[in-house]
Amino acid sequence: MEYMLTAPCNFGLEKTLAFEIKRAGGQNIVTRDGRIDFLGGEEVIAKANITTRTAERVGIVLARFHAETLDEVVENCRNIPIEQFAGRDDKLHVLQGHSLNSALTSVHAVQSRIMVGLVRRMQEKYKLQRLPETGTELRIDFLLLKNELTVTLDTSGASLHKRGYRALSNAAPIKETIAAGMVDLAHIRDTDTVVDPFCGSGTILIEAAMKAANIAPGQSRKFSAMYWRCFDRKVWDRAFEEARSAVKQDCAFEAYGYDIDPEAVKLTEENAKKAGVDKYIRVKARDIGDFHYTSTAVKVLTNPPYAERMGTSEEVREIYRTMGRVLLPRGDNSLYIITSIEDFEELFGEKADKNRKLYNGMIQCRLYSYYIG
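RE: above sequence
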């Protein structure tokens, strides 16, 4: 059976995610701000969850309808065939959603009315006065945007950025999906050498190594839809096996991480080992002022400190001036820096060859790319 599916992502990564969804088998792909809509069956759902690097989750679109009153929410949700997915004893959980530029501004009220409509539907279909709620939990998401309500059944469970390798992190880590987006935009290949002079907990280096070795980000975790009675577990087992068999057991990729904090160095090493890419990554404690390019061509990808995350504004600005003195690439080297500092190029001392808007969590940033010195 084919479903209308949707996968949200960080703003700025829509094109990258659309390509990933296409590779997972998604059809009729539509790019929206902060999400990708597409068609696919259970195999596509499994592959999208296991293999996409920039999606936050994958959901089945149960309904989209105009809603300006709470009664409209209840009645439309009562018409959703939720029994296709939820058995008579399964539990529905409507998560906190969002309401933007809509007549209905109370998220809690919309949340409760969606639940009312879905429960009434199940009561009618299963001829029950009270739902047992002793079975599998099915999670429902919603977005009310310009009076259009989208109700989605989550297939992922924990957000897809939770790969499982970063149980611990430093004070201000970059999100795994953002790091993966940087890696894609830098066109990392299995023969590249990547350097991060502010490695923190190692996220950028690990995502780069996983991409180079073709390690699917979700191949070692579980997903909610795997356990639904309406889905075939064998489909998921095949998708996992396909992902694991595609891993490059040995490639020429190398990565080097540096950080002024010895604890960050230790953390990067631990996380790289959990991710299974420690053989590709070398880390040591070093100040940014001591950075220098070698004869080997490298791609520098980094998420340096910025005032919203840590340090004082002047301390951070001095770091950026130092970066301008040591990081500006020459020859075949290239540099990719994500930061929220608005006058970054002025501090760095050189205008980027390209910059694009990205979001690191809720912080608006830009990815500055330098290809030639």
